[in-house]
Amino acid sequence: MTNEIREALAQFDRACEVYDFECEELEMLKYSQRIIEIAFPVRMDDGSFRVFRGYRVQHNDVRGPYKGGLRFHPEVNLDEVKALAFWMTIKCAVADIPYGGAKGGIKVDTKKVSKNELERITRSYTRHIAEFIGPEKDIPAPDMYTNPQVMAWVMDEYSHIVGRNTPAAVTGKPLTIGGSLGRDTATAQGGFYILEMLFKELKIKPAGLTFAVQGFGNAGMNMAKILAANNLKVVAVSDSSSGIHDPRGLDIEKLIVHKEKSGKLSGFAGAKTITNEQLLELPVKVLIPAALEAVITDANVNKIKADIIMELANGPVVMSACQKLHKRGVMVVPDVLANSGGVIVSYFEWVQNLRHFYWDMAKVQDHLKVQLSKAFKDVWQTAKKYDVNLRTGAYIVALGKITKALNVRGT
Ligand code: NAD
Predict the structure, then answer these.
(1) What is the mean pLDDT of the chain?
(2) Of 103, 225, 233, 259, which is the active-site residue?
(3) If you measure from the C-alpha of residue 106 to the centroid of ligand 1, how many angstroms do you get, rounded to a whole number?
(4) H helices within 130-229, ranges in order?
(5) Strand 34-43's sheet: what is its strand order?
(6) Is residue 351 part of a domain?
(7) Quick one: CA dihedral 84, 90, 94, 99, positive or negative?
């Protein structure tokens, strides 16, 4: 067992220990219901063939169809995908949306293939998993290095296979083919709503607080944008190559233009270049990891100076480090709550696709806020009641709902 899946199960065990769930069936959650591991050849632009490896893990569907992102990354592996699928089961239960958990991945470096090659890779992957996905079975969505264009290819290929236009087969699609308003910014927007609720509970005034964001993609860049638009001071951001820091605060809109033009964050006027490790150790009020998992571990936990860590990425703080931070009074807002805005608006997109009736932005935002307020309140009160950190609180909330579903459905 590698670290990610061991991590996920340790978080599960901890919640079971605290709450003492009386449900033997919960043992099911230690396993994935279905694991699809494939290898497929793809014709490259130069005429050669390359074999790619892909995965789709369907962890649990007791509360509804499987739901989870599709990740393209050179380091994707089965254990990582298993852990990410497990976390989706928990996340959908915390958010109280009628889905189970799944995740997919293809081992590919998107920076080293052309757009046409990426399309062929995506379509071939879709053909191989088509019989296992669909609006009532398993609904993929974007994750690291996948985007609305990739979702459009998945949806198109799937629609050809089943012989009818099926927008509800994936979420995170472009608006023109059934995407939802607000889905592109939903993960960050949801994270921002959670932060607002947290500040209110902690009686913290946000003005003047400092933020550092690791990762400058869908989750991280949009979070930095939303923070800046709300007059909050983002002093550091990073991407896969490096980070930048300016204690006076970064102009995020100008930074986005700079990154688009130069292809990198470094070289931005007035800011110092730093490493990703240095970004994590900055003396900021809120640290927001929004890239990969396991970036805060026992090796660097003692160097973390932030008061609040908002897990916009999945699994960025390992459990042992999380417990140490909790003892030091550092609050970690767990991924299964912090980044659930993405899957919540994916759910809204699916509902709109099934109904063929589309919502305006105000309706999406209002519903997102309502859903997240309830999830935050449940997690906050449960953590207080059992005197545990927010992660264990979130797991108790989720496992309670999953237990009910397991019991009522029977074996
Ligand atoms: P993305 O592909 O849009 O962006 C990823 C960003 O991370 C890029 O800026 C990339 O340069 C950076 N990055 C890659 N490797 C890095 C490294 N080693 N150190 C620092 N930065 C690195 O991906 P995303 O959709 O923003 O996903 C980021 C995280 O958020 C993932 O953990 C993902 O599972 C999680 N998440 C995303 C969504 C969503 O809706 N997109 C929803 C929930 C959770």
Answers:
(1) 96
(2) 103
(3) 15
(4) 148-162, 186-202, 218-229
(5) 34-43, 49-60, 101-106, 66-72, 138-142
(6) no
(7) positive
pLDDT at 20: 81
- Quick: pLDDT tens for 377-406: 999 999 999 999 999 999 999 999 999 999
Strand pairing of 138-142 and 66-72? parallel
Number of domains forming the structure of the chain: 2
Residue 133 lies in a domain: yes
Whole-number Å distance, alpha carbon 386 to ligand 1 midpoint, is 32
Asked whether residue 13 is assigned to any structural domain, the reply reads: no
Task: Determine if ligand 1 sits within 6 Å of the CB of residue 217.
Answer: yes
Question: What is the secondary structure of 123-141 as a DSSP string?
Answer: HHHHHHHGGG-BTTTEEEE
157 shares its domain with 192: no
Q: State which residues form the domain around 218.
A: 186-338
Percent of the chain beyond pLDDT 70?
A: 99
Q: What is the mean pLDDT of residues 10-22?
A: 86
The pLDDT score that the predictor gives to residue 54 is 98
Q: Which of 196, 191, 183 is nearest to 215 (CA)?
A: 191
137 and 245 co-located in one domain: no
| Rounded-to-integer distance, Cα 79 and Cα 359, Å | 37
Residues 56 and 144 in one domain: yes
Q: Is the CB of 289 under 6 A from ligand 1?
A: no
Angle between helical axes of 78-94 and 3-19 (0-180°, round to 10): 30
CATH of the domain at 215: 3.40.50.720
> In the chain, what percentage of residues exceed pLDDT 90?
92
